[in-house]
């Protein structure tokens, strides 16, 4: 039986409003960022907005599915889904479409699938499965799932996609931290992850050039530092109150990939310091509500799912803003629910649906008996 709206926790109701606002505001920001380029390249200024709206409707359907499905059932599917995602990521290395030197997409008819985005919700679910039962499962089961997570990370690095691998690695680390894993193990894992990221930068020339251009983008403003220089010019041009909605000049083919990775720069130019601060406060509100959901959960697995959802969603947004503002090297992470792209949109809304489901099950009125799933890590 679905839980009546009047009995929903305050956090769940607030999350519905935040998600709806985030989705609609993201569509408006994308419309401004993409209109001029879409008019010139596609002959239709609303081209990207129309496609994003279709993806948004489909994504809200998946959001509703995640919201209404028993979390215990979703946790049982997480393991096989993670392995399926791993196979799809491996397939991108064999038959994937290469864009800007990276093979991250599979083309299925009119659809482009990015498995590294779609696998994120299942990483969160299976991480909760594993670390919630860490002290009770056998060593071979621990090794199996740790190896599975490593396989996902290594395959994503091979594409190469350092930013997504780093985000997933950070999420796994935070879920493990919340579960009470020993600090010594966590510290060793962090060192290994840092070494792996460094090795990826040294092996892949374009990643190395991005790090160098991040340190001093003005040394080559028309070459490797061009993206970051144009992004900083856009943010700086916004001033305190911004140029106004739709009045960004950097989006007029000065700022590359302004509808995806650098859409925050367009937003900052049009809404200024006040708008940028409001966005950060909004993300803080989402993080606070997510933490409240986690604290109210009735078992450890649900709590870890909530923490993982909050980490991967808000963490991705913060990393995107950090890239656009020159606080970290340029990476290919979209701004959740704002950047153009159906795969990111679906993944983000499913994660929000999972977070809301955790809140609903914290009431104890839905979801069945609240007890840990026996040997769930053996899925």
Question: Which helices and strands appear, and what pairs or packs with what?
Answer:
Layout: H1 10-42, H2 47-68, H3 71-95, E1 97-99, E2 102-108, E3 111-113, H4 115-118, H5 120-132, H6 139-158, H7 162-179, H8 183-203, H9 205-215, H10 226-237, H11 263-296, H12 300-324, H13 342-361
Antiparallel strand pairs: 1-2, 2-3
Helix pairs in contact: 1-2, 1-11, 1-13, 2-13, 3-5, 3-6, 5-7, 5-12, 6-7, 7-8, 7-12, 8-9, 10-11, 11-12, 11-13, 12-13
Structure characterization notes:
The two termini are 27 Å apart. 68% of the residues lie in helices and 3% in strands. α1 packs antiparallel against α2 (47-68) and α1 runs antiparallel to α13. The chain has helices at residues 10-42, 47-68, 71-95, 115-118, 120-132, 139-158, 162-179, 183-203, 205-215, 226-237, 263-296, 300-324, 342-361; strands at residues 97-99, 102-108, 111-113. The protein has one domain (10-362). It is mainly α and 379 residues long. It contains 13 helices and 3 strands. A 3-stranded antiparallel β-sheet has the order 1-2-3. The longest helix is centred in the last third of the chain and has 34 residues, at 263-296. Residues 370-379 have low confidence and may be disordered. The radius of gyration is 21 Å and the shape is globular.
């Amino acid at each position: 039986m679905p839980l009546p709206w009047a009995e929903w926790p305050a956090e769940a109701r607030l999350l519905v409003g935040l998600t709806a606002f985030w989705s609609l505001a993201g569509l408006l920001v994308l419309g401004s960022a993409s209109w001029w380029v879409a008019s010139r390249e596609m002959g239709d200024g609303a081209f990207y907005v129309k496609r994003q709206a279709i993806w948004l409707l489909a994504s809200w359907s998946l959001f509703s599915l995640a919201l209404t499905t028993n979390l215990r059932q979703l946790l049982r599917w997480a393991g096989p889904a993670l392995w399926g995602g791993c196979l799809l990521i491996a397939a991108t290395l064999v038959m994937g479409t290469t864009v800007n030197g990276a093979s991250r997409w599979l083309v299925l008819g009119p659809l482009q699938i990015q498995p590294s985005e779609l696998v994120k919700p299942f990483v969160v679910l299976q991480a909760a499965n594993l670390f919630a039962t860490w002290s009770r499962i056998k060593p071979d089961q621990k090794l199996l799932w740790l190896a599975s997570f490593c396989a996902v990370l290594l395959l994503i690095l091979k594409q190469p996609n350092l930013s997504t691998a780093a985000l997933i690695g950070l999420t796994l680390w935070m879920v493990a931290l919340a579960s009470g894993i020993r600090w010594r193990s966590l510290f060793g894992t962090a060192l290994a992850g840092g070494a792996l990221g460094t090795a990826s930068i040294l092996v892949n020339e374009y990643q190395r050039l991005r790090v160098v251009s991040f340190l001093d983008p003005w040394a080559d403003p028309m070459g490797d530092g061009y993206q970051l220089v144009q992004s900083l010019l856009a943010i700086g041009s916004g001033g305190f109150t911004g140029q106004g909605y739709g009045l960004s000049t950097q989006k007029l083919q000065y700022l590359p990939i302004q509808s995806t990775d650098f859409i925050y720069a367009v937003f900052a130019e049009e809404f200024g310091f006040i708008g940028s601060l409001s966005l950060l406060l909004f993300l803080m509100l989402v993080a606070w509500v997510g933490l409240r959901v986690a604290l109210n959960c009735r078992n450890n697995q649900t709590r870890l799912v909530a923490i993982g959802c909050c980490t991967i969603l808000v963490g991705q947004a913060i990393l995107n803003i950090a890239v656009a503002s020159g606080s970290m090297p340029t990476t290919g992470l979209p701004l959740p629910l704002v950047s153009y792209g159906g795969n990111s949109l679906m993944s983000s809304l499913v994660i929000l649906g999972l977070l809301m489901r955790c809140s609903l099950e914290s009431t104890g009125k839905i979801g069945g008996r609240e007890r840990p799933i026996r040997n769930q890590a053996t899925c």
